[in-house]
């Protein structure tokens, strides 16, 4: 393709401008700081599965509260800040223009860190929506939307003000990521606040689960994958000093990936109460994802053709090659896990934990490390302090990934095999779920060893980068020159269509990206909401009593959904172990759903009436008293805390607003009924030799636990 110069080009003066490296430095420091915190919390959580007493009987250090803190810190603080670091460095340089608004850049930085600090405080305190990767309560949801959209505006305006004709591939991925995450976040976070830090999802049951995993899967796709693909498209060619392998492959990779990815969320809900057609759609599009995902991987690795000798010597390229390889492994495994026969084995097990960490530790972690090692010498105008230390980091980090993932893959196989094994007489070989938990302790310990090795490498990197900065001086701004866009070459009519229609027009690129990602979500969700046959009602399913509703909120606050599912799949082994499989109509009053995604403990969907009240009381006071060898921590504070009944009225009114059929005016008598049910449970506990006040949180939790699954036991017929 040829271009012709604009008339009078030779006489055009170059614009002089500056790149701001301070914002890059600030995001890099935040990446490192929050990465360290997030990994330390993750290591503590991992070790608690071997040594439960590491929570020191403190509610805010309990596994079920710090595990969401770990995932949020790693995803949004470490990877998020890592993305923004690369974004604010690469965008001005590929567009040859400064960031449009330094004020918005600073707002983005400080507001994002404030949100992270808020999460670090609120999640251990038990303020959670219980929606995976979206646990933050409604004030934070609003703040995230504002900050995210402000950053999107800044990037789009920078793109409009560029001094190059065509928008490079990295920027396509950045824009699509911002647009899609904004859409996902807003739709999934529609909730009804009842107090400053408490809300209920407007969706219930099946619909809530579908929306959540449409968000949850695509939070992985458009926060952990596409932004980092954009970083790969910029930093890998820079580090290798070679152009990207295939421009046309990048086009196919981009559009196919963002269109197909958005459909894949339902594969997290295979064999659940989600309508079969939605599960099938999720599987089909998940399998198709292999092609664009591996297209991106091949585009990255093939960029190194003729430069593999550099990989042996350059530690930055070592990190990047392993990162891209881990991306390829994870994006092959993901579609395989969406196949029903594989999913039946892997889902709810530690296999999924291994799969996720191949992506998090390998793809996101190693690419972040490679970028930081490449950036710091340029930001501080001096060579990296120690190449040997960086190589040590590479090898111990790689060893850490291996020691982390292999035990978790093995644990997943062990779990699934033990869950499903029957004796020759047709009985469950391991009827006590605890047997399947204690068998994994050695593997959990090895996982902790792997995490420790990875963390050691991270600390070595911190020292290396700190010394690099200490011995250099920050290049706060870099001066550059470029022609104004109006004076740059204009294309002939033969220009490739994508360049003409998309790469010249950032608003068109933004709009078409939004359309591409919105189609799948609309087709999956709208029928589930509008067609009643997707969620058949069950006449015997009634709203929760006020005490049960309060108990459910305590269940959510304590993060019980982290270890326990409430979704029995239609497998013989699960029906034998837990009871009748779950029906979609059981969850119509669950705002939000509590289906869970991992079984460290048994499923609780049919636990109501299985044990006496005293069993639950003793189990929460000391789990080993009821289940010797249990790795569940003690929840002694539930026995001491008084139940806050001042919120009952607001909660009932909120549920009425959401369509739960409480009688009109019932909110005024709700606490009367609550006290009556408290006294009934108190009396049953007294008969079992347990003396406790009726107004304790444990009483409400027992009420909720004893309700679970009892409606369907009365009448399992759909009507």
UniProtKB/TrEMBL annotation:
Residues given in the record as heme b 2; high-spin binding sites: 355
InterPro entries: Cyt_c-like_dom (IPR009056), Cyt_c-like_dom_sf (IPR036909), Cyt_c_oxase-like_su1_dom (IPR023616), Cyt_c_oxase-like_su1_sf (IPR036927), Cyt_C_Oxase_1 (IPR000883), Cyt_c_Oxase_su1_BS (IPR023615), Cyt_c_oxidase_cbb3_su1 (IPR004677), Cyt_c_oxidase_monohaem-su/FixO (IPR003468)
Transport as UniProt keyword: yes
Entry's EC annotation: 7.1.1.9
Subcellular location: Cell membrane
Cofactor(s) recorded in Swiss-Prot or TrEMBL: Cu(2+); heme; heme b
GO cellular-component term (any): plasma membrane
Domain Cytochrome c: 546-709
Cofactor note: Binds 1 copper ion per subunit, denoted as copper B.
Stretches that traverse the bilayer: 27-51, 71-91, 103-122, 142-160, 167-187, 213-235, 247-265, 277-294, 315-332, 352-376, 392-412, 444-466, 507-530
Residues given in the record as Cu cation binding sites: 217, 267-268
Pathway involvement of the protein, from the record: Energy metabolism; oxidative phosphorylation
Membrane topology according to the record: Multi-pass membrane protein
Catalysed reaction, written as an equation: 4 Fe(II)-[cytochrome c] + O2 + 8 H(+)(in) = 4 Fe(III)-[cytochrome c] + 2 H2O + 4 H(+)(out)
Gene3D superfamilies: Cytochrome c oxidase-like, subunit I domain (1.20.210.10), Cytochrome c-like domain (1.10.760.10)
GO annotation, biological process: aerobic respiration; electron transport coupled proton transport; respiratory electron transport chain
Keyword annotations: Cell membrane, Copper, Electron transport, Heme, Iron, Membrane, Metal-binding, Respiratory chain, Translocase, Transmembrane, Transmembrane helix, Transport
One Gene Ontology molecular-function label: cytochrome-c oxidase activity
Keyword flag Transmembrane helix: yes
Domain Cytochrome oxidase subunit I profile: 27-530
Matches recorded under PANTHER family: CYTOCHROME C OXIDASE SUBUNIT 1, CYTOCHROME C OXIDASE SUBUNIT 1 HOMOLOG, BACTEROID
Listed NCBIfam families: ccoN, ccoO, PRK14485.1, PRK14487.1
Family: Belongs to the heme-copper respiratory oxidase family.
Protein name: cytochrome-c oxidase
Origin species: Dyadobacter jiangsuensis
